[in-house]
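subagent[fold] <- orchestrator: predict structure for attached chain, return tokens only, no commentary.
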Amino acid sequence: MTRNEQVAATREALLRAAERLFAERGVHAVANRQISEAAGQGNNAAVSYHFGTKADLVRAITHRHAESIERNRQRMLDTEGEFTDLRGWVAFAVRPVTEHLDSLGTPSWYGRFIAQTTGDPALRALTSEASSAASPLMGRLTEGLSRCLPELPAEVQAERAAMTRHLITCMVAERERALADGEPTARTSWRTAADGLIDAITALWQAPTTTDN
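subagent[fold] -> orchestrator:
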């Protein structure tokens, strides 16, 4: 193995170990030393050497998965073309994520990692920044949803977009946890789990609006 290959293998081991530990225990509860040990690295400074700060490590994990999800979005767009209905744009939000989780096998930790990080204001900003950098197609998604519901006030659209993100994050993390623990799940596959999410989120966007009095 060349020096470059050794470095790449070490970085990959650290990323995988950090993602698992962060998902299981929370980011702030895990020390760099524990990540190095879980990755089989004798050097406790391995995380700092390869990634810098813990925040940099969180960014690296997020960016890696976001790139894969973005490739799924691009393939979906290439195959199906520009969507013209609400359900199509909701599917564009959901299926690239569930397809990515499906590709990771069982157990996986990405869903629970994102759930952990989005629950913390500072970490949420980090993951949002890293995801946005790797996901230019998210702008198309926002525009598409808006075009389908032009009568919905901008502030309500923003509110329901946040609800959509939370629903996808929480349900993906819950299914991932159940699969890892060998517990029963409501749906038999990631594909049908996506169907359920798309049904619910489409209904969410079409729900009536109650204005302030």
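orchestrator: received. Logging for downstream: The mean pLDDT is 93. The radius of gyration is 19 Å.
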